[in-house]
Design brief:
Layout: H1 2-18, E1 33-34, E2 37-38, E3 42-44, E4 53-55, H2 63-69, H3 78-88, H4 99-103, H5 106-109, E5 119-121, E6 126-128, H6 130-142, H7 154-163, H8 179-190, H9 201-207, E7 212-213, E8 216-217, E9 228-230, E10 234-236, H10 238-248, H11 259-271, E11 282-283
Parallel strand pairs: 9-11
Antiparallel strand pairs: 1-2, 3-4, 5-6, 7-8, 9-10
Length: 284
């Protein structure tokens, strides 16, 4: 009964958005500066993008939420980054290695890396993101068990690696391997309506971008800040958020790192081309 009521409520609310009856609200005209370092929160969209300009989700948040991100001392997501640094230097597995054993100082070796994933992985013949790259290193280089989805140190270690690219513009290479075909698949999924609510990603983050639905201000759904800290649920990985959105449409939820979600991650990452990596961003 509760599920039915919630589904009906969401359907009515989102239906109002799509019909244009929700309140409009522009993103704020402010510059995002983290610890004194300017971020690119507005960028010219790449060719073929549905928008002329890509906008960081930070521009759509409330003043209190925006304030948390601009100061790393206040940003609760930095606790995960600090935990990730500890994991980076911790020896695990049969090879007696840590991440630092091969990569040294992450501030140098990982600088800019997080802005270029997902990448094509020739071994698995599919794209992989930072989480899967970490698992590959753990199993092949460290002799350690790969992390289960969102378990163990996966989220904090990913946040630590991505943090080293904070401020770097997102830019993935679609010329690698079969990345373009995965981009095509991701685009198709982005516009496919699913679930009992018959919604697609584009229903909220393109058609209704900038509008208010209940207490939320709909952004472009950019993922340049992941892993990020959500005020309602703590540290959140990008595929966790994908699965949550799909669940909220009352559709069958794909498994983490499935072909569907990896294709979607490739496409949605591309949609944020030019925006700075904000990890760990803060959102509602």
């Amino acid at each position: 009964m509760k599920v039915s009521i919630l589904a009906t409520t969401l359907a009515v609310a989102l239906g109002s958005v799509c019909l244009g009856t929700a309140a409009n609200a522009d993103p704020v005209d402010e510059a995002l500066v983290i610890d004194g370092k300017p971020m690119i929160s507005r960028a010219k969209a790449p060719e073929g993008h549905p928008f002329d300009e890509v906008l960081s989700g930070w521009l759509f948040r409330e003043p209190e939420t925006r304030a948390l991100e601009i100061d790393s001392i206040e940003n609760p997501g930095m606790l995960a980054v600090e935990e990730g640094e500890t994991i980076w230097n911790t020896v695990e597995g049969t090879a007696g290695k840590s991440c630092a054993s091969c990569h040294g100082d992450a501030a140098q070796s990982m600088a800019g890396v997080g802005a270029k994933y997902p990448k094509w992985d020739a071994d698995s013949k599919r794209p992989i993101d930072i989480e899967l790259m970490i698992n590959k290193c753990r199993s092949e280089k460290m002799g350690a068990e790969p992390y289960a989805f969102d378990k163990g140190g996966q989220v904090p270690l990913t946040a630590y690696v991505k943090y080293q690219s904070q401020g770097e513009p997102v830019s993935i290479d679609l010329s690698q391997g079969e990345m373009q075909q995965w981009w095509d698949k991701g685009k198709e999924l982005y516009y496919t309506r699913t679930g009992q609510l018959n919604l697609s990603c584009a229903s909220c983050h393109e058609v209704s971008m900038g509008k208010h639905i209940r207490a939320d201000h709909l952004s472009q759904g950019q993922i340049n800040g992941f892993p990020l800290y959500r005020l309602k649920s703590g540290m959140t990985s990008v595929q966790n958020r994908f699965r949550g959105c799909i669940r909220d449409t009352r559709a069958e939820v794909p498994k983490a790192f499935s072909d569907e979600l990896m294709a979607l991650e490739v496409y949605v990452t591309w949609r944020g081309t030019g925006l700075s990596v904000e990890t760990p961003a803060v959102r509602q």
